[in-house]
Design goal:
The protein has 610 residues and is of the alpha/beta class. It contains 14 helices and 29 strands. The strands form six sheets. Strands 8-11-10-6-5-2-21-22-23 form a nine-stranded mixed beta sheet, sandwiched between helices. Strand 26 (501-503) and strand 27 (508-516) form a beta hairpin. The longest helix is centred in the first third of the chain and has 17 residues, at 53-69.
Amino acid sequence: MDVVSISEILAAQGLEHPNLNVLQATEAQYTALLIQPEGKILIKPDFIGNARHNESERKMYEFLRHASALAPSPDLVVCPEYSMPWNALKRAIDNGVVPGNGQLWVLGCESLRFGQLNEIREALNGQVIIIDDESSVEELTTQSYRNPLVYLFQTRAVVNAQPALVMIVQYKTAPSGDAANTEAIGMMRGRYVYRFGRANEVSLITLICSDVFDFNQAICAAVHDRLLLLHIQLNNNPRHISYKRYRQYLYELDADTELLCLNWAENIQSTDRVDGAFTSWRNIGGSCWYTRAPEFDASERTVKANHGAGVYYTRHQPFRTHVLQFDYRERVFFFQATKVFHHAVPKARSRRTGPKALKTFVWSNNTWTEAIHPRDLPNDGFKASLGAAADRYADIVKLHEDSPLGLERTLAVTAGELDSGSEWHAIQNIDSIRIGEDEFINRVTFAQDPEGRMFRMNRLKAAIVLAGLQNRNYEWPVELQFLNEGFEFVSPPSPHQHRNIKASDSTLATVVYLGEVLDTSILDIVDQKMRKIVAGEIAEPDRVLSDLDMRSLVRQHQARAASRYCLLYVDDTKTVAYRNPHYLSYAQPLNSSTPDFTNPLASPLTREQQ
């Protein structure tokens, strides 16, 4: 793989580097239209592409027409590997459906048999300047086609500034692996990956699926800074270690780098012959957008708005990177985003807040229609994961409707899985929001990843069992007797509140349910952590204390200030409240005064003050 500046390629043809909006390092934002198509794939020794030609040509032509007609017109248009039929692209160019000035279309096209590009060039009859490089890193043996990416954009001639529509064709440089060695046998490998961007501009390159095998640390080090990297795929396992290793190379480096991975929708189906039976890949979607935008907007309002458009927030903990996960089903997404970096922009105006989903579109009546009707809106899968319990637990369902993040916090409190720091409430510190090196998604309110099913089931089970105690006439411990009259789940409204339960008299409480616990030392660990969080910071002592007295003071504070809190677990099939021996010596009736052996604390807080 050789990374080559597009300026060199264009200069050889007497053309200027285009002025692309997505590359301008200004505070002006850009828009992007991305399609994640439903997969019906035909895979033959001499062809890879859509199995249903008429339907796919109609869908993809309408996608391009939609991009051309949309207001504001998108600055960046992308479709995944092997998805764009050549007939749809030719029809678009014939009908004047092309990018405008400043816009870039990045189109993963169906396979291109040898000699076919010359036929396309003749058919388009000079409407577009087509540039490609036919050289390869290997000798011709069994190969019969190439895997092409098309860049389509407007530029000008160097000599007379005449406008020119340009198509640059980039070929896949490394074959994907599969049981039949399909690409290894039939695909001729390309040599070059083209790089857009000049001095003080954003750089943009695109990798085609398994191109990432050759995108090594040396290449990453050379191109990563101020880079928008597009990774278009037809991939049944986008989280396979070989396909995600390059992400580690990118994000172990400290630089302005954004990564947009665009795959087909979930459950791709393939066949090896026209009108043949289909085999399901049982894949996830896996499209996502990685960003380290320094002022990334993770506000409740924006996260909820993105969620409603089928774009779900996660935090890649090892990379310290925000990752927006796309709904797994077929959909067109319309984004507005800040630039990858800013050049010579005053600090007061330089706020890189990341991508925001503006609209989403579904295929309806032979066109891409904005998703407004409830049946067309993205479905995060949460209610389905509740199953029959959805009708019985209206408070949990309402929390999900009001704030998906709020429900994640409520369920984290219920499970006793809070970050012990003071910023537990922050979105990046919610355990279900985080993803690790395996990139499995545990979000309860984005219940589409099969790898997170067990986590989600256990997290919901804790809440459902806790809610069910009301139907068993459970006798609550004395400090929570007010729950005997019934309660519902609530969302902690601020970083300084940790309540997940509201009694029928509106009293708030914190209840953790651990279920059956094999290792009882866990009870002490969780209880101490939760008491520390619920009690909050201790008041400053009036005098210097010994280490022993300070530890006693902390115990006292956490025993007294962590009011209306208890930890429940199952002991011999009975649900019981855990009595932590570390705190029993400080236990007092609710309204008694605090022992005054150090005089560091004011009188105990009332329920209302808590």
